Amino acid sequence: MYYFDNAATTKPCEQAVQAVVNGLTKDFGNPSSLYKLGLDAENIVEAARKEIANAIGCDNSQSIYFTSCATESSNTVVFGCAKNYGRRKNKVVTTGVEHPSVENSFSELEKQGFEIVRVFPDDSGNISAEQIFSEVDENTFLVSCMLVNNETGYILPVADAFKKIKKKYPECITHCDAVQGFLKIDFKVKQLYADCISLSGHKIYAPKGIGALYIKKGVRIAPYLIGGGQEKGFRSGTESVPLISGFGEAVKFFSLTTQKRLEHAKSLKDYLKTKIAECKGLELNSDDDCSPYINSVSVNRIKSEVLLHYLEKREIYVSSGSACAKGKKSSVLKAFKIPERNLDSTIRISFSHETTKEDIDVLIENIIKAQDELCKLK
Ligand code: PLP
What we know:
By secondary structure, the protein is α/β, with parallel strands linked by helices. It has 2 domains: 2-9 and 258-377, Alpha-Beta Complex (Aspartate Aminotransferase, domain 1); 14-254, Aspartate Aminotransferase, domain 2. It is built from 12 helices and 13 strands. The chain has helices spanning 14-25, 36-55, 70-85, 100-111, 129-135, 158-168, 189-192, 241-254, 258-278, 304-312, 331-335, 357-377; strands at residues 2-3, 64-67, 91-95, 115-119, 140-144, 173-177, 196-200, 211-215, 282-284, 294-299, 316-317, 319-320, 346-350. Strand 3 (91-95), helix 4 (100-111) and strand 4 form a beta-alpha-beta unit. It is globular. Pyridoxal-5'-phosphate binds next to helix 3.
């Protein structure tokens, strides 16, 4: 199997799998129980919390809350902020290239009467910190900007934008969906100037169904789930000890190698770029400044879904745009100024530390075969 869809999800690492098994078979206590089995489970949860805090350079692990996924983390920020801060102020600033977990939450707020300002890439496909900052005013209670775009790998100027915003409007809450950047490009809480950060387990070799939310001390986000008061009353519901433990173990293992893996991803991207330059009808949409893990490639004259299934038959897995777009023409690619003719012939190739140059050779060979066979049929 040749798996090039690591931006959609990753294969859990052995450490994470083992931790999940232990959490299901051995440490199955409820972290809220007062006897030893419960305390053991609680210790596992707290150890995982510390790993995640360390990985993003946060000294207080109590600023990390476990959620079921990054979608829940971002929904909690959007709706929780609106509830607490949206009574006196009415405006939110975000970008026009956010993941649906953020974009669709803002569309909901828009229906409720909030003003949502979306900042789009300029003619060259870039978004500047100044563009985001200039939309913020005294009436803005939340700014949300993703770190790495999930369709193109484009890295947004979050730190610069948030720094300017916090300096002029210290009360404005800053949120970053850092899902595609976590343990891939190095970032630290303090340098990002983010009050809230959404993270996901399954993009970094942990299981699906577990996410985290960093909330800076003092920031008041209304809870989304109410009940037994777990997670210090912020996110009720019995903690999923196995998944949290798996998340913690994956973070522990991979946080040691962020730089090394980034170098590997860069060398893969360079290789992919050279291969693409040698082929007719292939265009790399992700430039050198993008995260090397995510590469948007247009394959002229073949619909991405057709190519996806052609490759699938050869056990090669890529994504059409992003997994969430499910074959629809991507408004995000359009926003990044990918030419109209390429919008439905664009695939996403996303790497992991296990991807090799030989894998890329196989992928490119098969794309060329697809061009020969499928274009001849037309
Ligand atoms: N944000 C980004 C940038 C993503 O790429 C994804 C998943 O594709 C999410 C959020 C949602 O993550 P989760 O599946 O944990 O809800």
